[in-house]
Amino acid sequence: MSACLCLAFLLFSVVVADATYIPRRSHHLLSSRQNRKTSKSNTELPSHFETRYFPQNLDHFSFQPESYQVFHQKYLINSRFWRKDGPIFVYTGNEGDIEWFASNTGFMLDIAPKFKALLVFIEHRFYGESKPHKLANTLGFLNSQQALADYAILIRSLKQNLTSEASPVIVFGGSYGGMLAAWFRLKYPHIAIGALASSAPILNFDNIVPSSSFYDTVSQDFKEVSVNCFEVIKRSWGEMEVFSTIKDGLQELSKMFRTCKTLHSVDSASGWLETAFIETAMVNYPTPANFMAPLPAYPVGQMCKIMDELPLEASNLERAFAAASLYYNYSGSVTCFDMENHTDSHGLNGWGWQACTEMVMPMSCSNQTMFRPFESDDEKANQEYCLREYGVKPRPNWITTEFGGQRIEMVLKRFGSNIIFSNGLQDPWSGGGVLKNISSSIIALVTRKGAHHTDLRAATKDDPEWLKQQRRQEVAIIEKWISEYYNDLEQEEQAK
Q1: Confidence band of 35 (pLDDT split at 50, 70, 90)
Q2: What are phi and psi for residue 63, nearest 5 degrees?
Q3: Looking at 221, 427, 453, 455, which residue is catalytic?
Q4: Which of 40, 49, 208, 333 has the greatest count of CB atoms below 10 A from its CB?
Q5: Which residues are within 8 A (CB) of 8 and not within 5 positions of it... i.e. 6 or more apart?
Q6: 51 — phi, psi (to 5°)?
Q7: Known SUPFAM superfamilies for this protein (predicted)?
Q8: 150 assigned to active site
Q9: Which one-letter DSSP state was computed for residue 432?
Q10: Are 360 and 140 in contact, with CB atoms under 8 Å apart?
Q11: Is 427 labeled as catalytic in the residue annotation?
């Protein structure tokens, strides 16, 4: 999303360890904040935002008595720049606390004065504070269709309460939130006149795109900076495996990796490295950022520089560890790394549930990448894991059945309108994004150096020209949508 987003989505591959199937987590959503504790500065309520709660029915699609159970959905609202009947910009929340997404979507706040827009950030059901009381018995109502209906009902109610029914609504989202924004425009065109879907991998389902695209892109990001950097990381996995075969190997590896406690297996250290390289590629922003973690501008290049500056006698694994430490310890304040005590910041395994039901994204990794190769998902193993953990079976074809995706150019050319799909080709999720214009109003804005929803971040004085130009294009398109809407509205009033 997605993480990031963190965009941050539970995808699977088969990993054999003590004859047990272990799910392999992808690094998201899509916002991908998994196993990372968000700093306080990232979750504080942005200035001029007010926190509100809206009563939502648990189930919008049936009329059984239990469907009327209510939970309170959190949303943030900023009316500082708004004028009555002006546009309403809505962020379709991802898999996490809504403050986190509001804090990292400064683009909406930057353009609100120009459009005199009302800003609304809606938290996704079952995340943050927007949770039903009886969680264990209600997970079946956690899915994207219910979430989109939440947004539709809340927006309609808000417009009625503001007596501003004529206000045009545009939805924004990044990563999983970007997917929701695009789908919202398609499902509820009478509520939103347009959508900006940034880094939205809506084609990452049902084998529409190659399952290897995610890891291919991460590897290419490092290879473009330095072939040596790519090769060092590729060779480091084999050096790590050696520690699992020698006496006191785990103790030695723990010492090298400065772990707080002795490792029980090399898998934790491998996952720690992999997460650092993947998420750094996702947030390879042109300016310093504090999205996944505090990082400098173009952190992939900084990682490779760290590797190259170590003494010649340093091993590949030592170089890989030193580079990964930039991701986990840019401030230099961490004295040891706790690699075996991760927490899932998505909370209550909400994303785990979604990945075991509808968000089934095939993933594989070839031996041409800098990572350990693995084949595409083992469907039987996935089912066994999901049955064991949640009592459900994945539905790998459901998203494309519900929202489409196959032959998307042909379908949306005749059916859809007013969607911006923005992608940066350095973002691992871009392989599942819409990268070509579909029609005159379904536009793909693609930047070669862009990372995970770079365009949605707040503008800074150090932004490169390509990013400024991308945002200018987005503003111009949104301005056109709004102008056309008001012209149509005026003609309708005159015809009465």
Answers
A1: very low
A2: -125, 30
A3: 427
A4: 49
A5: 1, 2, 26, 27, 28, 29, 30, 31, 32, 33, 34, 95, 175, 176, 346, 351
A6: -90, 130
A7: alpha/beta-Hydrolases
A8: no
A9: G
A10: no
A11: yes
